[in-house]
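Summary for the steering committee. The consortium agreed at its last meeting that each partner would contribute one worked example illustrating the joint modelling workflow. Our contribution is presented below. We chose a case with several input lines so that the handling of multiple components could be demonstrated. No manual editing was applied between input and output; the record is shown as generated.
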Amino acid sequence: MKLLALFATLMTGAILLYGTMDFPAFGDPQSPAATHLATYFTENAVRETHVPNLVTAVLGDYRGYDTMFETVVIYCAGLAVVSVLRKKKPSVPENKS
Amino acid sequence: MRLLQDQTAEQKLGESLIIQTAVRILVPFIQLFGLYVIVHGHYSPGGGFQGGVILGASFVLLTLAFDQKFALKYMSEKANNILSNAGALLFTGTATLCAICYGGKFLDYSALDKLLPLGPIAWRSFGIFVIEVGVGLAVMSISASLFWLLGSNGEMDEGL
Amino acid sequence: MDQIAALIIAKYNYWIYVTLMMIGFYAMIGKRNLVKKLIGLNIFQTAIILMFVSAGVKKGAKIPILDKHHVMEHGVNVVDIVNPVPHVLMLTAIVVAVSVTGVALAILLRIYREYGTLEEDEILEKLGR
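What follows is the complete predicted structure of the assembly.
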């Protein structure tokens, strides 16, 4: 069973490494991730929002949906933990009847 | 698990006087630093998530050095629930206020300019600040309540 | 041979995250203890975070915090600034990872309360399978 798991893990790693042959090199300024939308954010975010920290500007304004539903996700996580774990102690002893 | 809790309660493991005094002095400064990280997120590395986690970690430190009852004196369970609700509501409420305010779009903070004229760009900056505070409140109270609930097996009483 | 070595050196970040991902994946499917599975999940998430952050790196670039007045007057050269979008995505992903860990630990505590063990086969035995 453990040998099967090891085999599956090694196969997945080999496939992923084969997939990275097409990926851009480390630190490439012309990689696809850096050329499409990030260029617009870097050039215009300070002028449009007056926030020098680009991460905060993108987090709060351009990707507001992402951040909002992410807050809802952690709120739901807190709600789930309370509803799974919380137990109230009985305030009156139960052996009266 | 029960045995370990009993041992801890009897022998006061990890609760020496030095640790307690150091934590008592450190905790206000940690909370001040967390507030700074939230508020100064426009100009330096920081923001709602990071500052909220620092604020939550201060309560975790109080719980580890003292007792959970002692930490719950600073932030009761009811206040914690109210703060987590208020944080999520501040974010979604600001977003909805943008939408219902004179034909603006959802999460477009420049629409709030018609409510209080400061200029659309200044409102975009200020709207980011408001939602960062909301995120910080939610992350703080939920990370603290996760630790308290997991540490006390759901009883919110004596804890670890 | 030199070409293969050059390829590995140019993309060594992918080798690191694939190795981390393999460790986490093996822990998730190979181990029998549920807490070890959860630790494997966390290592897996760390690998994904590392991959995204390394996708935003530009060689010789600065952090994405700009000088406001300088940018308003002269503009900014995009090649000099690190890509901020993967940082934003991973900032939210880290907090989601924390809440996933919290919910998973809560469920594990509940399982321990119910069955008295966290080993997978013992739980299946108590379930009567």
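Residues 34-84 of chain A form one domain. The helical segments of chain A are 2-19, 32-35, 38-49, 54-62, 64-85.
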